[in-house]
Amino acid sequence: MTETAAQPGFDYLIVGAGFAGAVLAERLATATGARVLIVDRRPHIGGNAYDRYDDAGILIHPYGPHIFHTNSADVFAYLSRFTEWRPYQHRVLASVDGQQLPIPINLDTVNRLYGLNLTAFELEAFFASVAEPAAQIRTSEDVVVSKVGRDLYNKFFRGYTRKQWGLDPSELDASVTARVPTRTNRDDRYFADTYQAMPLHGYTRMFEAMLAHPNIKVMLNTDYRELQGLLPWRHTIYTGPVDAFFDHCYGRLPYRSLEFVHETHATPQFQPVGTVNYPNDYGYTRISEFKHITGQAHPQTSVVYEYPQAEGDPYYPVPRPENAELYKRYEALTHTRPDVTFVGRLATYRYYNMDQVVAQALATFRRLTAGPEASELAVQPG
Predict the structure, then answer these.
(1) Contacts of residue 229, Cβ cutoff 8 Å, sequence gap at least 6
(2) 222 in helix, strand or coil?
(3) Which one, of 226, 249, 304, 286, lies nearest residue 51 by Cα?
(4) What pLDDT does residue 175 have?
(5) What structural domains does the chain harbor?
(6) Alpha carbon distance 165, 151 (integer Å)
(7) Which residues pair with 93 in a beta bridge?
(8) What was the pLDDT predicted at 95?
(9) Angstrom distance (rounded) from CA 107 to CA 183
(10) From 40-44, 74-78, 99-103, 374-378, the region with the lowest mean pLDDT
(11) Comparing C-alpha atoms, which of 163, 161, 164 is closest to residue 140?
């Protein structure tokens, strides 16, 4: 019998079976032989990236579309251990002035919107002529208006942002709209990353492969607090909301949530691309059609409408200076808990893409197994 098997309990309790938790569980179990218990309050693994087949037999993302893209060869190579890929480049249209126009704004967007015939070189001059330079870029409004002027800002960004965040772009950090580039060519891909692909058989199958290690035990429909005093473990990895971990002692960190309304239609295709944004009309921000994203062939099609709301599961940290200051108070508390590692979107109050969460989890694994706590937590491979 190995030393690992002889010891009672677990080496790690991981709270949350999304990307951060699953990557750390896999790495710790596979690379160090650690015994890992991963728990999630939801009835499934995969976090918000979880996918499943709906009643029509169409693969859907219950928590809205998750499009994988990364510039990191390391992240892509790591995930490739657990899935094959289907190449996919996401395209988005915005419903503006009775047309569906490419977003991010590009040469075709401007020409079709204004009935022009500009070249790429002329578009740069056009943007320069309508831009309103700002002495200092502080807000999301500043980012867009200083690049493409107020009319494009009003048509494509202001209404969408107000719906998404419940705040005007002038009240939000510049990082919100800085995520969406402006192009002077005809590139209509939403992302420009080196690696753009979807897990061939879905995210859930990928997560199942990641967690299929004999040293990993999974408990679903479980609040980790219910396990205290029932099971022994040596170190906690927490991927949930950091303010909830500390019982909201400084107040709640603000998040935006979403309501997802799923529909199935008796037609092979509902819309021309994976996602259509509605910046100025209706209560929803966008409609996504899953078959574009997954490549599934099916006589019917399923779509999801996204309605932003203030209450509900936390999805998006609200990027405002006062919220960053509140997070810093919670972050200071995390430093008083050497027995807990905080990782992931919710635990670090940052809006990370999926690949960024994977990269953060891999970096956290290296730190856990190479830092001062490594000797205390090291176990013999089983």
Answers:
(1) none
(2) coil
(3) 304
(4) 83
(5) 3-45+211-252+318-377 (3.40.50.720), 92-178 (no CATH)
(6) 21
(7) 102, 276
(8) 98
(9) 7
(10) 374-378
(11) 161
